[in-house]
Amino acid sequence: MVRYLTKVRNTLQRFIEWTIEKIKQTEKGRVEALAGIAASLPIKEAILLPIHVQTNPSVAEASTYNTIEASQADDQEWTEDIIRYLRTGTLPEEPKQAHKIRVQAARFTLIGGYLYKRSFTSPYLRCLNHLEALYVLAELHEGVCGNHSGGRSLAHRAHSQGYYWPTMKKDAAAYVKKCDKCQKHAPIPHVSSETLKPISGPWPFAQWGMDIVRPLLAAVAQKKFLLVTTDYFSKWVEAEAYASIKDKYVTKFVWKNIICHFGIPQTIIANNGPQFDSIAFRNFCLELNIRNSYSTPRYPQSNGQSEATNKTLITALKKRLEQAKKKWVEELPGVLWAYRTTPGRPTGNTPFALAYGMDAVIPTEIGLPTIRTEAGRQDDANAELGRNLDWAGRSKRDRIHPDDILSTKDSRSLQSQGKTQKFQKWNAGP
Q1: Which residues form the Integrase catalytic domain (predicted)?
Q2: CB of 225 within 8 A of CB of 284?
């Protein structure tokens, strides 16, 4: 509407005199009749009135494009001056700006032609311009591994993946506010806040919380139940979809997704459902010395970690699916990946990093390589091979047997002690 208003104002400047009159709704009958005829009749040849169909908008899209280019130019200036100073030592003519660039450049460096900032929390952060920042925000927020997180979480995630630009927090908050799906499916709290009573495991993957999400829309193979389990220490999530959940499915899920991947846990917290409180599941846990802990139906907060995870997964599925809600089984792996690669507020790290010791490589690092993905390229691999060839001679010398070295030393010692003799020419006589 802003572009249409600007178009009208620019057009009115061409007239010497003009007036604007408001037409009542009752006096718009002919206009609405013409619009109805053009929209309702499928056979355009049967209409005697000439109809002009306008396929393109009357307002050009140049204004949006110019806005992006202007912002891009503004964001590029903060990197261009620093890059120019690091490459050629050239500073701006203004003394204050030159002093500012000289001070800022101390925290930046050029690696492989790209500008990186020395970070306090990680080795280097790749500096991005406006278009690159928009790409990172879009990919992290609604891409393959995006979960439509909030502004603070989105900025934290971009920073933890190895990116930097001066207005990260501001841009992330503005981007989330413009997301239509985030506005539609934003949670509305109805319960007053209480003091947080965190429950953490003694070591990673020692304590898991399990729960069954309410019946969803029937998907492929009539799958409508979601079995979810969360580690209390690292917040790692495992989930699978089932058409019906029985105790044998729960036993198989615990064996395949928890024990075979992360070892035997100490405690499993669940509700009093027949799938968890059955004799078969209790005997299975008893054989592996796993303690079963059950939450009461009147106080589900005792298994609050599972309840919080369920809410996050369901909200992420709603934002991804919109109208195609029966495809939630196909979107489940992507939602789990996004959850595992998003930093959590309690730990400050991603569940993937707490589980494996480093962050996962996500699509943004393929489109815009960071310092760790740049380090694994072919050039570095060739350099490493060259160093190995340089060290090959030393390594061969180190592999000589000590007896060979001793015999070599003895032979040299005997040679040094011996006297050199020369044969005289023998004269056989006349």
Answers
A1: 200-359
A2: no
User: Considering the domain boundaries, does residue 355 fall inside one?
Assistant: no
pTM of structure? 0.62
Count of domains forming the chain: 2
Cα–Cα dist 89/377, whole Å = 29
Residue 4 lies in a domain: no
Same structural domain, 232 and 323:
yes
**Phi and psi, residue 243, nearest 5°:** -75, -35
Note the pLDDT tens digit of each residue in 6-26.
887 788 777 888 887 777 766
CA gap 361, 160 in Å, rounded: 11
Please, what is the end-to-end C-alpha distance for the chain in angstroms? 130
374-384 residue pLDDT tens: 766 655 556 66
Q: How far apart (Å, rounded) are the C-alpha atoms in residues 26 and 61?
A: 34
Determine the Cα–Cα distance for residues 50 and 269; give it in Å rounded to an integer: 72
Q: Which residue has the tokens 């009958």?
A: 29
State the Cα–Cα distance between residues 325 and 185, nearest whole angstrom: 14
